[in-house]
Amino acid sequence: MMEKLMITVALTGAEVSLADNPNLPVTPEEIARAAYECYQAGASIVHLHVRTPDGAPTQDSAVFKEAIGRIQEKCDIVIQVSTGGAVGMSVDERLQPVYLRPEMATLSTGSVNFGDEVFLNPPTYIEHFARVMQEYRVKPEIEVFEVGMINNALRLLKKGLLKEPLHFDFVMGVPGGIPATMKNLLHLTESIPPGSTWTVAGMGRAQLFVATAAILLGGHARVGFEDNIYYEKGVPAESNAQLVERVAHIARIHSRGISTAPEARRILGLDGYRAKM
Ligand code: KMH
Ligand code: ZN
What we know:
Layout: E1 7-10, H1 28-41, E2 45-48, E3 50-51, E4 57-58, H2 61-74, E5 78-81, H3 91-95, E6 104-108, E7 112-114, E8 117-119, H4 123-135, E9 139-144, H5 148-158, E10 167-172, H6 182-190, E11 197-202, H7 206-217, E12 220-223, E13 230-232, E14 235-236, H8 240-253, H9 261-268
Helix pairs in contact: 1-2, 1-8
Bound molecules: (5S)-5-amino-3-OXO-hexanoic acid (KMH) and zinc ion.
Zinc ion binds next to loops.
């Protein structure tokens, strides 16, 4: 039997701007409001990036703290901070929100071409991130942009830097990463250890296709402006919640239940991770 569907919403990201979609949540207050709308629409996890007042990506823990505090005033959605930040940020910069002890953080287990740039994650970085997450009792979501990154995660597991059950996010369709095809998705799902959980994030128009595939395959789905700003071709999404609602609707059509935040904590084994900010 399939677990209920966990919907993660990636609200803001580091690359999208207000010029791309004027409905992008940028300030901590806007981010908290958007997170709450998505929670009401069925999201149980929020993947969090924050911005400076002028809209630039930042990993400043004070800004994360404000955004997380405001979200937690409104709802109990699982908080997952980004340690990817933006391309070119230093390791120390990227790690800042982990010191706040959120329940989850992302852990990219390899480098990948990222458009015209390189998202750099050599072995020394990965091990350091994993060690800090272990020390601060933050559950990693392993970000897989290429299939070899699964193997890199298994190497961390062997070294004792990760603990099973592992939770993966397959990031598909980044220019430079694995293309978002059904064949590739099946290959990824068959390449992770039994007992692992997985979610999938498709870039652009692939968001809807891979989310639907996840609903049918027993995986979980990530949607939101970080990965896709359109509702349909040429039509900008009105809100992150609109994208969450659509995936929740598709899940209901297929009789796949939607997990609440406490149910997501159970599925992910997060008990004991939660810290109020
Ligand atoms: N912004 C990308 C360079 C993550 O959040 O961990 C990396 C990223 C992944 O967004
Ligand atoms: Zn991200």
